[in-house]
Amino acid sequence: MPRKILTIVGARPQFIKAAAVSRAIRETDGLSEVMIHTGQHFDSNMSDIFFEELDIRKPKHHLAVNGGGHGDMTGRMLMAIEPILVAERPDWVMVYGDTNSTLAGSLAASKLHIPVAHVEAGLRSFNRRMPEEINRVVTDHLSTLHFSPTSTAVANLAAEGVSKGVHHVGDVMYDATLFATSKAEQGSTVLSDLKLRPKAYVIATVHRAENTDDPGQLRAVVQFLQERAKSHSVVLPLHPRTRQAASRMGVNLDRLQVIDPVGYLDMAKLLHHAVEVYTDSGGVQKEAYFHRVPCTTLRDETEWTETVTHGWNRLWKGPERLTQREIEEYGKGRAAFDIAKLLASNSAA
Length: 349
Ligand code: UDP
Hints:
Blueprint: E1 3-9, H1 12-26, E2 31-37, H2 48-53, E3 61-62, H3 70-88, E4 92-96, H4 100-111, E5 116-119, H5 131-142, E6 145-148, H6 151-159, E7 166-168, H7 172-187, H8 190-193, E8 201-205, H9 209-212, H10 215-228, E9 233-237, H11 240-249, E10 257-259, H12 264-272, E11 276-279, H13 282-290, E12 295-297, H14 305-309, E13 313-315, H15 335-345
Parallel strand pairs: 1-2, 1-4, 2-3, 4-5, 5-6, 6-7, 8-9, 8-11, 9-10, 11-12, 12-13
Helix pairs in contact: 1-7, 1-15, 3-4, 4-5, 7-12
The structure holds uridine-5'-diphosphate (UDP).
């Protein structure tokens, strides 16, 4: 019998990471996979498009849980996930990153004594006001296998007493970027559609609660981008949360080239040809490096410290970028295969 992996995803970055790992699982002997989509992100341009473009099999279970506060959303996910785990009886539950879907999945599984494998284990901002930080810390302490993208993440886990089952595999987002970039170069027409010339525009994303929940903060971020728009077009694929916040708070987005969220291939093409990246996204900070485009992070700290120490990234209120050096930490684009191999060979289940 192949070892059964039950993957739980729900938000955009998780579809992208799971796509890389699912492909590797399909190509690894001794593994089978079943997927739950919690429904946390549900718009077609925040969910369906990633399944189509990245060749992810249709999830067997779709929970349609979204909206509401953290407790409400996480609670409904827990209630919906538990009976599925009881019926599916997987050998591993696999969760990604740091969303409410990650937390609900790891909590439901560990209460049923099903071992949890966490992809992107050990990241820390050391800012407990971020909901993502709470989700990461709890998930890491409930997991049996920890797939860490960087040695800093491994050290963070060690500092919390977590050293068993920790594997520095590199970053599955790099695998995803390699998969998308060549496809995007051939298939995406986004630059001509948006009338953009390579290296003549900036790409920006904003969606973190710390930037969208407070009107003063959102206004400051938008003004920062508007200042940048004096010399280059600033293309802003707007996350639904930010669109709602800006409209509710009356924050004016003039002078920014606001577009709907784009699919992963268009995003890869937009990043690849940008002159600079401005973002509060974890994934986009690293993708900027994968495309060798300098990044400014619209936050006061980052979990991806190596992007700063190696000169590709800076914090918006921090010092200038350092001298650029290559980052070895993220691996060679084989992280997903290493994860699949470890799942196939690990007998903790
Ligand atoms: N992304 C995308 N389309 C967009 C904006 C972002 O495909 O319009 C991708 C981006 O390239 C990255 C991922 O979404 O791979 C990041 O997701 P997000 O910023 O929502 O989450 P985070 O990385 O902060 O957890």
